[in-house]
Amino acid sequence: MTAEHFHADVAIVGYGPTGVAAANFLGSRGVKVVAFEREKDIYQRARAVTVNDWTLRCFQAVGLDQALLKDMDPHTQYRWKTYAGKELMRVAVEPSTLGQPAAMAIYQPVMEQTLRDGAARFADHVEVRYGKSVTGVVQDAEGATVALGDERVRVRYVLACDGGSSATREQLGIKLLGDTIDTRWVVIDAKIKRWWPERHILKFWSDNRRPVVDIALGLGNHRWEFPLEPHESEDQFATKELLWALLNSMGVTAEDVEIHQHAFYRHHVRAAERWRDGRVFLLGDAGHLMPPLGGPGYAIGYPRCLQPQLEAPSGDRRTSSRRGR
Ligand SMILES: Cc1cc2nc3c(=O)[nH]c(=O)nc-3n(C[C@H](O)[C@H](O)[C@H](O)COP(=O)(O)OP(=O)(O)OC[C@H]3O[C@@H](n4cnc5c(N)ncnc54)[C@H](O)[C@@H]3O)c2cc1C
Predict the structure, then answer these.
(1) Low-confidence residues in the chain, pLDDT < 50
(2) What is the pLDDT of residue 292?
(3) Ligand 1 centroid vs 113 CA: distance in angstroms?
């Protein structure tokens, strides 16, 4: 009997933060990968704001921690203040025991670019196809077939890294259990024009009506996250002029920052009822969603748990001796 030919050992569906992390981990171990991303470019919206020592430790394992750290700034303290200026609490970030900074401010689109450049080191066995939307995944005893419209790509395993609305998860009939909180948040990202005292200290403006997250991002960017009140609509904050009313209420003016984007979110606290179905694995937001206030949605997408779950591909593995290190 002739052995079946597979285009790759692993197909990655979605090349966001989780997909590109998986490509680096698998690429560094010589696994043959093909990744599909429906967008042509990196999604420019900065969603994640911080990563921690565990994240950096993961990327240290694939030689990318120093390149990533170049575009990050350390978090040293967190504080809670009332609108009237009373400081309720201040907490110092404890040093890490992992040989990495404990908490870092990031700028997500740039971090993703560094991770993409990292995966490009393995271009001989990690192929990335942009502008390609996966339309279905079918599996059998020997492998899985990824459909892209009329095209079919045969692989041994599939990693669904296609985000919170994962079509792969839905196609497998895997439920996303948990809650979505009704409150809508408007997230405003701005470029800094001038520094202000303690800008780098993450602040939780503690107010019963409108608690605000106020956080420095990497590379001279800043983020505010405001919950909308039940009677407020997204239309009320649709333009920069309307957003300025929110920033002005925090004492921030056009002399301090330039708004460059905003978005509305609801917070999800959800997990898929299972993270594996045969040859298909759900990773990142496809498998679990947590509110940004809890922080590490992005960070826990990194598939450090992945390696032991995949059985060794027999055919095309390049560096079998490195497996299990
Ligand atoms: C306001 C906010 C703040 C946050 N702050 C933090 C934080 O501080 N720290 C943190 O760790 N996390 C944070 N997060 C969470 C973090 O942004 C997400 O957990 C992270 O982006 C998930 O990455 P992902 O790759 O799993 O999914 P996504 O980022 O959603 O990427 C999925 C990718 O798959 C592609 N795709 C989808 N369907 C297909 C298809 N059919 N075919 C091909 N490609 C497809 C998409 O185009 C996309 O590129 C925050 C989120 C929000 C909204």
Answers:
(1) 303-325
(2) 77
(3) 14
